[in-house]
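Summarise this fold before class:
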Amino acid sequence: MIVWIVFIVFVLIFLALDLGVFHKNDHVIKSKEAGIWTAIWVTVAFSFSGVIYWLFNSGMIDNPTGLTPNNAVLKYITGYLIELSLSVDNIFVIAVIFSSFKIPPLYQHRVLFWGILGAIVFRALMIFFGVALITKFEWIIYIFGIFLLYTAFNMLKGDDDDFDPKKSFVFKMIKKIYPVTSKMNGHAFFVKRMGVNAATPLFVALIVIELTDILFALDSIPAILAITADPFIVFTSNILAILGLRSMYFLISRMLEKFRYINYSLVVILAFVGLKMLFSHYIELPEWVSLTVISVALASGVLASMFIKERE
C-alpha cells in the first residue's frame, strides 16, 4: 500500500501546486503554454514506465497477474495510449459544453481542474470494482467486449454529433434540484441574489463535464482492463492520462476541425480492444501487437486529418 499512497500523494501535491501556484490567477491558456504542459505531462507519463519496471523488478508491489517487468511496462504504455486516444473524443464534448453554457476561456481551466479532481475519485472506484469483477467473474470480460463493440458502432454512425448539453437529462435535473442563474460571477460556482443561492453556469458546466466523463470512463476503463487486470497499472496509466487532459484540451480544442478523421481512429481502437476481450480465452496476442495497432490507428487518424483535404 505504500507505493499506492506515494503515487496518490504525488498526484495531490501536483494538483495543489497547479491551482495554488502555477494557475493561481485566472488567465486564458494560450496554445504555447498548453503545448509546454502537454509535453511535460506526456514526458512524466512515459518516464513513469521506468518506475513501473523498477517496482515489478524489485517486487515492491503486488503482482497478482504474474507480469514480468518488461511486460508490465508494455501494458502500462498501451493502457496510457488507449486512455490518451479516447480522451480526444472527451475533448470534443468538453468544447461543446463550454460553448453551450458560454463559459469564458478565462475560467475554463478552473472548471477543468475541479472536473478532473472529481474524475480521479470516480475512476478509482470504477477501476477497483472493474478489476474485482474480472477477477471474480471471468465471463464479465465478454460483457465488456460486447459493450466496446457497441460503442465503436455508435461512434461510427455518429449518433453523438447532435449532443446539446442544455437539452440533456443532467441539466434538467440540476434546474429542478437547485436554482440556476444564467449570469456569471467571476470564477465563483455559486452566487447569492435577492437572498437566494443559485448555481452559476460554471457549476452547471462542471457537473455536466463530470457526469459525461463518467460515461466516457465506461468505455476507457474496460478498454484498459482488456490489456491488463493489474490494478496498479490500470490506475496509474488512467490517472496520468487524465492529468494531461486539461493541457491537451487547450492545445487541440482550437484545432478540432482539423482532426475530423480522429473518430475513425477511436472506432478502430475500441473495436480492436472489444474483439481482443471476446477472444481473450482463445487467442493470446503479444503485447507489442496491441501497442502497434493502437499507435498506428491514432497516427493514421491524425495524418489523414492533416493531409486529406476537405471537400467543398
